[in-house]
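Q: Structure tokens for this one, please.
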Amino acid sequence: MTSSKHALRVAIIGAGPAGIYAADALMKSDADVSIDLYERMPAPFGLIRYGVAPDHPRIKGIITALHKVLDRPQVRLLGNIDYGTDITLDDLRTFYDSVIFSTGANADRALDIPGIDLDGCYGAADFVSWYDGHPDVPRTWPLDAERVAVIGVGNVALDVARMLAKTGDELLPTEIPPNVYAGLRTNKAAEVHVFGRRGPAQAKFTPLELRELDHSPTIEVIVDPEDIDYDAGSETARRQSKQVDMISNTLEQWAIRDPGDRPHKLFLHFFESPAEVLGADGRVTGLRTERTRLDGTGNVESTGAYRDWPVTAVYRAVGYLSQPIPELPFDDRAGVVPNESGRVLTDEDAHGSARYLPGVYVTGWIKRGPIGLIGHTRGDANETVACLLDDRETLAAAVDPDPDSVTAFLAAKGVPFTTWQGWYRLDAYERELGACEGRERVKVVERTDMVVASLGRH
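A: Here is the predicted structure, written as tokens:
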């Protein structure tokens, strides 16, 4: 049982929105808590920093709210620490009463069609990491394709399509680092084709994200009038959801307007199911799709009609996928840690009752899969934290709960960890770099440079 002599010590692994919301929920409870928020990157904010397109400052504004959580004295940030390498679950059990994993999802879900492994096929998550300046990905990206296909009709697909269609100079006022600007300046994409298997009423992007495509002076958004089709299921969806109706209305307006003369063309295709990536000599030469049609329920069926599109690069944006966490069970099919309301499930006993990993919890995308918007993770965090607090009388007490003990442990291992105060230094440094160019910020990419700036040694 936890001791009444010390505050409830909680380690949260992952300092993105999910982890920070969990810390916030703990601090808003009636419990006396002491929280350490671990992050693999030298900087916090996870998906906000490394998963949101740089031309979306309104979404990055969420950082302002997250800042207020991390400014509170009950929470401490420990960055540049790789769980499983720098610290293990057994180590964490020594210093904490419980552990919450909020590691998110940063890999691409597979798309099982022939040719998807050809040179010129890319995952959206990898491309997003590149243009967002993630320190652990290559500094260059091949942008020599004049015609590009993006498979998927979610917000990530639109981000990828928009970044491919915009010019480097158009994106320069954002926080993109020099290597990304240099790459985008050489981008040869003149046509970007986005493919969805179903119709306009089944698209997964948000109305605002869709409309933003048309704001660029360099991008002409084109929708084929033949792709505007609804069945009874689609009409029901429009009546039941204002968002679905807004998306449908926007696409209808674009389908009936006369084409403009903006230099880059962005085509939104519906009822085209990817069937095969075509290739020659190991490289992409096209994408073959099968035409689909609505079946009355809002779903689609095959027509047997195929079309080949002459593209030389294919990006799959069919969903993110979480990675297994060392020492925790993992459901490879669902891409989540098996859990019940955030409690990590190990198996069932002889009577079919659930058994849990003591003192271990999950929240965010590693808990429920990569669905929903950033704000939805707050509900996840509240549910998980409620379970943790319900369990607190049965939690095994930390062997060494002194907050200084874990930092001494990390220092003894030679782990150059960063802190919340270090983030303020890195933030100021990135803003200084931006000010020199008349920009708000220039993101630092190299991990070593981020650590040096965080430690105040640049």
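A few notes: The mean pLDDT is 94. Residues 8-105+323-417 form a domain with the Rossmann fold fold (CATH 3.40.50.720).
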